[in-house]
Amino acid sequence: MTTQPAHHDTLSDNATRTAPSGTARKVGYVLSGLFILFMLFDGIIHILNLQTVKDASAELGLPDSLALTAGVVQLICLALYVIPRTSVLGAILLTGYLGGAVLTNLRAEQPLVSTTLFAVYTGIVMWAGLYLRDEKVREIIPLRRA
């Protein structure tokens, strides 16, 4: 008679290991809150098509008429990020949105570290906040020790 090795449910083991601590969860909410406030502000000024948005659009070679569309798309993606059930979808869509910002700034030959990569920094804050506050994200993206 042969015995089979004990089978461990890796998903439940992983879930146990990845539960965020209270401090991590609080930091995650702070990072997410800062990200949400910034993106809300940015989306609203695009919808209002303020002069600063017009000036920035002209510098990037974009027509003023895109500001409203960009602001609406941004706020829809942000709403998905804010809703817990759709936060991962919102983060994925916002990652694409921020990637477009990087490419637009690269094409316009904006300064790399201060301007072009700002969207990358913003995306890192967004994902870090979600990762720290949501154990399901930790299951999807497990960080392993070497």
Written description of the protein model:
- With 146 residues, this protein is mostly helical.
- 76% of the residues lie in helices and 0% in strands.
- The chain has one domain (20-139).
- The protein has helices spanning 10-18, 22-48, 51-60, 66-82, 87-107, 112-116, 118-133, 135-140.
- Helix 2 runs antiparallel to helix 4, helix 2 (22-48) crosses helix 7 and helix 4 (66-82) runs antiparallel to helix 5 (87-107).
- Mean pLDDT is 89; it is low at 5-16.
Key traits:
76% helix; 146 residues; 8 helices
Estimated structural class:
mainly alpha
Which of globular, elongated, flat, extended, rod-shaped describes the shape? elongated
Major β-sheet profile: none
Q: What level of helicity do the residues show?
A: over 70%
Distance separating the two termini:
38 Å
Helix and strand element order: HHHHHHHH
Number of domains: 1
Question: How many helical stretches?
Answer: 8
Mean pLDDT: 89
Low-confidence stretches: 5-16
The strand count comes to 0
Gyration radius, to the nearest Å?
A: 20 Å
Beta content comes to under 5%
